[in-house]
Amino acid sequence: MDGQPVMDLASAMERFDGDQDLFLTLAEMFLERSPATLTAIQTALADKNLPMLAKEAHKLKGSAMEFCARPTVAAAGQLEESARRSALNEIAAIGERVHAEVQRLTAALQVIIEKGFPS
Amino acid sequence: MQITERRIGQSIILDLTGELSYANRTTFKAAVERSKHSGCRHLILNMQGVRFLDSSALGTLALLAQSFPATQGMVSLLNPQSYVKEIITLANLHQILPVYTSEQDALAGSRLPAAG
Amino acid sequence: MAEPAHRIEDEPLAGKAAKPTPVILLVDDDEMTRISMAGRLKRLGYRVIEAGDGVAGLAAVRAQRPDLVILDWMMPGLDGPSVCEAIRADGELRSSQVVLMTAHDQPGQIAEGLSRGADDFLSKAASKQEVLARVQASLRSSALVREIERTRDDLDRSHRLLSAKQAELESELQSAAEFVRAQLPLPGMPAPGIGMQWAYQPSLALGGDLFQVGAWGSETLGLYILDASGHGVAAALRAVALMSFLREENLAKAVGSFDPGAIITEANRRFPLTQDGEYFTLWVGRLHLPSQTVSYAAAGHCGAFLHSLQGASQWLSSASLPLGFDPTITFDSATAQLRPRDRLYLLSDGIYEAPSPTGELWGRERLQATLESHRNHTLAHSIGDTMTTARQWLGGDIFPDDVALLGVEVLDSSGPAKEKS
């Protein structure tokens, strides 16, 4: 899992037709949201609130898809699926992986915001 | 209305079948024009197969009578039947258009001086 | 910073500069995905309106009438399929082009989406090419639907215009018909000692049959009936023209006398066959009131019947050509003597040529018998009942040709004919 790049920047830029402004706008939005998202997921796990967990995971998955951040998308997707299946024994572990991937993604996005796009 | 043309010497006989009415006056007039332009001294309209004639057709026949001046030739009618014959008679059309009962008489009529 | 790369080959509007930019409404409650899709669509050259929930989206469809509506599937409140259903249920909006956004891992959504009214689907994971292709396809459908609706509206408008025009024409035709009818004799006695009744029924609003009774000089009554060949407005116009010629003042000038033969001879010169072969038939009579003699002449018209109570009834006609058939001929007058209670009928061939449902014509013999059967009835009754009898023969009310029936009666010095219903 760690071997996979946190996001496929080339595919993302292809998706946005090279629109770097749009990418940056979305990246900033993601950075802004991610603390609240992670907190919400934590709370839902603690409360075993499966509907809330599925909803937050689904939303996170959609956001991560914008950046072609495949590991994050995969983790969020699995969390959503487990929550829908009420697989209580799985959700904690997947929740932790989600947390880790989100950290990696925000770090990578931060780099681009501060240092610009690799040439 | 079906129209067939027969040429006999200097005469043309147009055999008419069907109705002579407002509806087909253009077809009829066109056929007459064609015969006229192919050059004939006597145009004989064979009315044997005509089963209906309206006021518009009467007027067309009268116009024909007026447009075939003596020098160019003449028009005549051949063998109108029952109802059509009655209409032609009531309108006194024979006063301006000769009406024959036999084809021979009609063709012979070509040799007569044109009606005054 | 990056510049927007505006590559011409990807420009969907290349070569369509004249057309307005398509407007896409994007409805998505997730701000990030909404901004992303909106940005991508704008970059492709479209105008994008955004709404953050189903209710706002529906309101925007109504207000803006976008060329395309893209709906996210999952939304709180009114979700995508529900908005879709609402659009299809609305008479004004239901032809809108609607695309539902699907998750790329849920193929079952397509069946449900279709059943709830979606036209097409777009995955959030779609590539730039796929978004472009789907949007273009949807916009083509949308444009087609708009075209159809415009054509339908044009048709409705044309139809309304045509109906209005038709109503206008019919109203004008009515006015013309009223004018023509107003030319007919006024009810009442045209001269002392002479009774008159008539019936008139053109086959269309207007007809080519007209008659008149009026003074021609002192002590004489002029009567005539004319029939312009053909039907409808053209025939009516020509009939009115001949009627003008036959006015008392004009006859005095143009003919110099009221002799029927002279009148018809002059009319025969002045009214030639038209180039379409249209013509008139005409019967003219002149009743000398002191002697009660009627002189008359005809051009191809045989509709004058003298119903004599004492002498022999007779049709007052002669073999003659219609007007214009031979402009060189002359017409002679004949005379007949009228006696008290005699009736002179002028009638158009439309009445005795009335066909039965089997096609047999009523005929002059039956008409004559009907007129004579009213020997002891009033003239009004005779005219009215003759029309009724003709209609019975016809088996209906609509005659195929114009019907005109005029009767004048020499009143008995002891008063009018006995009333009998």
Q: What keyword list fits this structure?
A:
heterotrimer, A: mainly alpha, Four Helix Bundle (Hemerythrin (Met), subunit A), 5 helices, B: 116 residues, alpha/beta, 5 strands
Q: Would you give an account of this structure?
A:
The complex is a heterotrimer of chains A (119), B (116) and C (421). Chain A has 119 residues and is mostly helical. Chain A has a single domain, classed as Four Helix Bundle (Hemerythrin (Met), subunit A) (Up-down Bundle), CATH 1.20.120.160. Chain A is built from five helices and no strands. In chain A, helix 4 (70-84) packs antiparallel against helix 5 (88-115). Chain B has helices at 25-37, 55-67, 82-90, 103-109, and strands at 2-8, 11-20, 42-53, 74-78, 99-100. A five-stranded mixed β-sheet of chain B has the order 1-2-3-4-5. The longest helix of chain B is centred in the N-terminal third of the chain and has 13 residues, at 25-37. The N and C termini of chain C lie far apart (109 Å). Chain C is built from eleven helices and 15 strands. The radius of gyration of chain C is 40 Å and the shape is rod-shaped. Chains in contact: A-C, B-C. The interface between A and C is medium-sized, with 22 and 21 residues.
Compact summary:
Chain B is of the alpha/beta class and 116 residues long.
Name the shape of chain B in a single word.
globular
* Structural class computed from helices and strand pairing of chain A: mainly alpha
CATH class of chain B: Alpha Beta
What's the CATH architecture of chain A?
Up-down Bundle
Name the pair of protein chains with the most residues at their interface, and give those residue counts: A-C, 22 and 21 residues
CATH superfamily of chain A: HPT domain
Instruction: Estimate the mean pLDDT confidence of chain B.
Output: 86
Helix-strand sequence of chain A: HHHHH
Order of helices and strands of chain B: EEHEHEHEH
CA gyration radius of chain A, whole angstroms: 14 Å
- CATH architectural type of chain B: 2-Layer Sandwich
Shape designation of chain A: elongated
Structure class of chain B: alpha/beta
Total strands of chain A: the figure is: 0
- If helices are DSSP runs of H or I spanning 4 or more residues, what is the number of helices of chain A? 5
What is the makeup of the main sheet of chain A?
none
